[in-house]
């Protein structure tokens, strides 16, 4: 035997060894242990580590053949492998689950440890980059799940701060992380047909609240301005309204608004919360009176459109702060402005905005409504002066991308724009002079993942963003002073007077951290 692990209730013992199998024993009577089920096999080399999930429903096993396998052990007499093995790794020596069972850690002889999102064990997703050491042979998590401990062949024990905050639990790509207007709650809609609500009152520690399920491929979520109602679109399930005044217990209001579109992408709510714009069919949008969200009322015919083809999808929409103008973006590479002062009779304003070379899928307005950002499947962002809706004027252009944009959002003061993109991650731009936008460095987050969307968390210095394929919601503190304090807390005892004298003897001792 090379490795053993007890289930958390103490009833079962798993053992892996040189015979390339894992055996499970019923040890509820330690004096008369009995093997249960058939040996778990499929390995090509020694099984070095086994670990039960905290709820004892799953067993993870790691082998010298470079694979990690997950097993359904809810019924120990009839165990089965879950999904395909995690393969192509170095010889794996140690495994551990976080206390909540959502993350599995694996450590290998190549000196790297990996974190896996196993909320959907059929398709585990790698979280971040591998952690490197020197021949990692042991690992474990602290009781609160915030620290990972690894032991290596270099005789060193290392402590790693777990990625925090990290919101996981959904099993399909997160398409729409949406902050509530007060920044205290975020809704994340995913392709698995779920919406999760997260407590972000402490943005450094996300906490899950209520969950909405049974939807279909959620594409958009929007809070009403008072934060009491969440509107959700996706798949062919139409537009749904949920009372989220108690975010722990979301409750559907009324019946869904049926849509005649294959894709539901466009969703906008007026600043007073009374009017909603959404897709109607594949090339038109419709306005609704949602003063009573349990009984939304259609306003006039669905006349908002960019063309007459069935493929002229409307991808995004946004109201100006006065609620009198609606701006829409479409697959025709154009953006249109609409006079919706009479929402029952919307009228186009001027000619479509042109300049994009591919479908336009994301819009953002500065809080004062003066500047519009447009982005889509081409590799740039355009800024527009829309202070006079009848005469919009193109200003600056943000470049340096190789793929299309998933999101654009302005800061509360309108002076900074963040973009979410697969090849550049999350980037920040100084747009205080929108005619001359300036990039504020490269991505502020790791770039090896797919970033679908990013947004500012109102009332804070944080952004919230989604990453795939690890299917996680994350927040990031942009406050420079906080970053300095964190760095100093971790390194204050490193640059000692003796180290300074060794490397900077020509200068008087003046450590950067007080």
Task: Describe what this molecule looks like in 3D.
The chain has 514 residues and is mainly beta. Among the domains are: 3-163, Methylamine Dehydrogenase, Chain H; 480-514, no CATH class. It has two helices and 43 strands. A four-stranded antiparallel sheet has the order 1-2-3-4, with no helix packed on it. The chain has a four-stranded antiparallel sheet with strand order 5-6-7-8, with no helix packed on it. A hairpin with a 4-residue loop joins strand 18 and strand 19. The mean pLDDT is 88.
Nearest-angstrom radius of gyration?
Answer: 26 Å
Number of strands: 43
User: Strand-residue fraction?
Assistant: over 45%
Structural class: mainly beta
Average pLDDT figure: 88
- What is the CATH architecture assignment of the domain at 3-163? 7 Propeller
**Stretches with pLDDT under 50, minimum 5 residues:** none
Question: Biggest β-sheet: count, sense, barrel?
Answer: 4 strands, antiparallel
Tally of separate helices: 2
Helix coverage percent: under 10%
Q: Can you tell me the CATH superfamily of the domain at 3-163?
A: YVTN repeat-like/Quinoprotein amine dehydrogenase
**Name of the CATH first level of the domain at 3-163:** Mainly Beta
The gross shape turns out to be globular
What is the rounded distance between the termini?
Answer: 52 Å
The strands making up the biggest β-sheet line up spatially as: 1-2-3-4
CATH fold title of the domain at 3-163: Methylamine Dehydrogenase, Chain H
